[in-house]
Amino acid sequence: MLQRICGLALVLGLAATAPALAGQGKTELLWLGQAAFRIDTPGGKVILIDPFITQNPKTPAEWKDLDKLGKLDVILVTHGHGDHIGDAPTLAKKQNIQMWGPARLADTLVDLGILTPELAPRMNKGGTIHPIGPDIAITQVHAEHSSEFVYVNPETKKREVHVGGEPVGYIIKLENGFTIYHMGDTGLFGDLAPIGQRYRPDLLLVPIGGHFVLDPSDAAEATRMMRPHFAIPMHYGTFPQLAGTPEQYIAALGKTATEVKVLQPGETAVFDQL
User: Fold this and answer.
1) Number of compact structural domains in the chain
2) What pLDDT does 24 receive?
3) DSSP state of 100
């Protein structure tokens, strides 16, 4: 089923065909559950964010095979928690591509021998990078959360907790100017308003589950602060604590110019250039 509303096409149950549409002036987002998205850009680049996939109880079985993701160009990680970093190191090594995340998380992965400095480069909040070409700009912004990296030492077999750096969100400006704000895991904070004014995101990827992140009411307030054209709720329903629902978020948002698009894991949203 294909719906086209206000410049957005929502493809339901057709995620496996998404790469065929890339490079046709469209932006495609495949939601894999929790905060994991694969973004196919208008110019044919592929960005993977927070790839908690193989251990994610909500990721459809057909996507548990990491080869199904196809060729990736870059991986972005918002913080060190296992339900966000997930399969990122495995994919970075498998495809020989960079994984960008909080600076101290990159240091930890290098110090532990999980990734090389080339695959885990450093950046920080406020910084903008162009790792996959000059026409795509990626900026780290603040997120109000924590960021521990839990690691099972292969020698001692014991669980260790390491520094994960400060959590971040990402502003991703694509080749055609379409701008996505992946909020990562966050609560409300005052600088959401100036972030919205500065970067003017077209699409907000907003956590709504509560307990660890924004609940539906606070997510609605964050959306009003951002004023995006579109919003996709994420980070809900994966675990019992994440009890917030899209219906609660939409009700809390009330009458607004923001168009909320609700995906199921494995579904793809396709955005035409605005």
Assistant:
1) 1
2) 56
3) E
Which secondary-structure segment (H or E) carries 233? strand 230-234
Distance in angstroms (rounded) separating the CA atoms of residues 266 and 215: 23
CATH of the domain at 120: 3.60.15.10
Query: Range of 114's domain?
Result: 2-272
Query: What is the mean pLDDT of the segment spanning 244-259?
Result: 97
| Cα(155)–Cα(18) distance, integer angstroms | 42
pTM (predicted TM-score): 0.91
Beta-strand pair 259-260/268-272 = unpaired
Q: From CA 96, how far away is CA 94, in angstroms rounded?
A: 6
Residue 134, classified by CB atoms within 10 Å of its CB into exposed (0-12), middle (13-18) or buried (19+), is exposed
- Asked if the model's pLDDT at residue 74 lies above 70, the reply is yes
Residue 67: half-sphere exposure toward Cβ, Cα within 13 Å: 0
| Residue 4 CB partners (closer than 8 Å, separation 6+) | none
Please determine, for residue 2, whether its predicted confidence score (pLDDT) is greater than 60. no
